[in-house]
Design goal:
The protein is an alpha+beta fold. About 25% of the residues lie in helices and about 45% in strands. It has one helix at about 20-35; strands at about 5-15, 35-45, 50-55. The radius of gyration is 13 Å and the shape is elongated. The termini are close together. It holds the Pfam family DUF4177.
Length: about 60
């Protein structure tokens, strides 16, 4: 097993009247198909976006 990792941060901005659940699902599906594993989700302090943190073996 590899002890080195690649990391990726995806920021999803909130938009008025948008379906955020669907957008997050699309990002999770897209990155999962590319081999990325979700490791954390953080909401920004201003609550205007969320950040998805992914990793995969290098």
């Amino acid at each position: 097993m590899s002890s080195r990792w690649q990391h990726k941060v995806v920021e999803i901005a909130y938009k008025l009247f948008a379906n955020h659940t669907e957008r997050v699902q699309q990002e999770l599906d897209k990155h999962g198909q590319q081999g990325w594993e979700l490791v954390a989700v953080v909401q920004s302090n201003a609550a205007d976006s969320i950040r998805l943190f992914f990793k995969k073996p290098a």
